[in-house]
Each structure stands twice: as structure tokens, then as C-alpha cells.
């Protein structure tokens, strides 16, 4: 295990694997969120459930940390607590099976009920967030770590809940520190949303590009 500082003074702790226990808790919390949305239980049961959740919360808070855990992998660190890909963040869908092959980043996501916008469909803002994250991964793996300065999303069809979706992203061109990238989400082969972004490479951040290439 190693620790490295972030620009804001906090520390990133690098660990070899996703903490199994923390991931298990996050998975169960996702179940609780889903149950909370769908429940029609009587008040007494809801009060009892709230008390159990409070007990679990206090148990988890017995030991806490300020570091952002990150997994060390050959193709770049995966942020355990990230809002989009974090397996230990119960708010994350999460975006899984991230891979970088032949210049393209790919991953899978299934939006839960908590991501609902229109009935039975994923909220457009969350669709955009997943695309933005995939774009960031593509740029980081192809060029270097970068920040989004502009993103445009074209919604071509409704993105369903509870269905496996394919997310792909790639770098289109590089102009100095400015990187242009594009991404899309597909359901059953059909594109539901497309994004184009401009990102700026951030000096000082560690590169996670397996085989960084220059496209200028």
C-alpha cells in the first residue's frame, strides 16, 4: 500500500484490490436505496427499518478516513469511491468492466431505479455523467489525465433502466494541452446518446496511459 498527495492536500491511498467488505456494504446500500424507492410498507415497518439503518450507519462511522481509495491496476488506477465507476460508492451505478483496447475505452453500465428520469428511463443528467466519465478515462488512458471544459450530449433515444448498456469513448485529436474526444452509449446495438468533449490536460497529475500516444 502506498500514499500520494492530491493538489488539495488530501491523500490517495493505493491498494492492490477493491476492499471486499466495503464493496459488499455498498452493494447492500444500493439494495436499500432500491427498496426505499419501491416500498409501500406501513409506518411501523418504515420506522423499524430507519432505526436499523441508523444502527448500521453508526457502526460504519466507528472508523473513518479522509483518503480517497484507489485501486492500482496495470491499465490505470480505478477510483474505488468515484461517483460513476466506484464499486464501493453506493451512489455509483457503477460503470464496470472498463478496458482500453486499440485506442478505445469501453465499459458497461446498468442504470438502477434511483437513476430514473422519465418513467422507466435513465435521467439525462446521469447519462451525461457516465459519458463524461468515459471520455475522461479515454483521454487519461490515451494521452494524460485531463479535466472537462466543454461537453455536448446528443440524446438520440431513451436510455432504459435495468438493462445492460455498452459505453465506448475515444480520443479524436490533440492540440497542445487541448484534447478532443467522443463517446456513446448503446442499448442492444442502438445508440441512445452521443457526447463530444474538449478536455484540458492537467499538469502534475500522474499519467495512467498504458501506451500514451501523440495525435497532433
UniProtKB/TrEMBL annotation:
Annotated family: Belongs to the THEM4/THEM5 thioesterase family.
Species in which this protein is naturally found: Antrihabitans stalactiti
Record bears the keyword Hydrolase: yes
Single GO MF annotation: hydrolase activity
The entry's keywords: Apoptosis, Cell membrane, Cell projection, Cytoplasm, Fatty acid metabolism, Hydrolase, Lipid metabolism, Membrane, Transit peptide
Sequence ranges assigned to domain Thioesterase in this UniProt record: 120-189
InterPro entries tied to this protein: HotDog_dom_sf, THEM4/THEM5_acyl-CoA_thioest, Thioestr_dom
Official protein name in the record: Acyl-coenzyme A thioesterase THEM4
Amino acid at each position: 500500500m502506498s500514499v500520494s498527495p492530491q493538489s488539495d492536500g488530501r491523500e490517495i491511498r493505493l491498494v492492490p484490490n477493491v476492499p471486499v467488505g466495503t464493496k459488499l456494504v455498498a452493494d447492500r446500500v444500493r439494495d436499500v436505496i432500491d427498496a426505499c424507492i419501491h416500498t409501500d410498507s406501513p409506518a411501523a415497518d418504515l420506522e423499524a427499518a430507519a432505526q436499523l439503518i441508523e444502527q448500521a450507519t453508526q457502526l460504519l462511522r466507528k472508523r473513518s478516513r479522509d483518503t480517497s481509495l484507489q485501486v492500482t491496476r496495470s491499465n490505470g488506477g480505478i477510483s474505488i469511491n468515484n461517483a460513476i465507476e466506484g464499486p464501493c460508492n453506493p451512489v455509483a451505478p457503477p460503470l464496470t468492466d472498463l478496458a482500453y483496447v486499440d485506442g478505445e475505452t469501453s465499459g458497461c453500465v446498468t442504470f438502477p431505479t434511483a437513476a430514473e428520469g422519465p418513467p422507466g428511463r435513465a435521467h439525462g443528467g446521469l447519462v451525461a455523467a457516465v459519458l463524461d466519465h468515459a471520455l475522461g478515462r479515454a483521454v487519461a488512458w490515451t494521452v494524460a489525465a485531463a479535466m472537462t471544459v466543454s461537453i455536448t450530449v446528443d440524446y438520440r433515444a431513451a436510455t432504459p433502466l435495468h438493462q445492460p448498456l455498452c459505453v465506448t469513448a475515444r480520443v479524436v485529436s490533440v492540440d497542445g494541452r487541448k484534447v478532443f474526444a467522443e463517446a456513446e452509449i448503446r442499448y442492444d446495438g442502438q445508440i441512445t446518446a452521443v457526447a463530444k468533449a474538449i478536455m484540458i490536460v492537467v499538469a502534475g497529475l500522474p499519467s495512467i496511459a498504458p501506451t500514451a500516444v501523440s495525435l497532433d
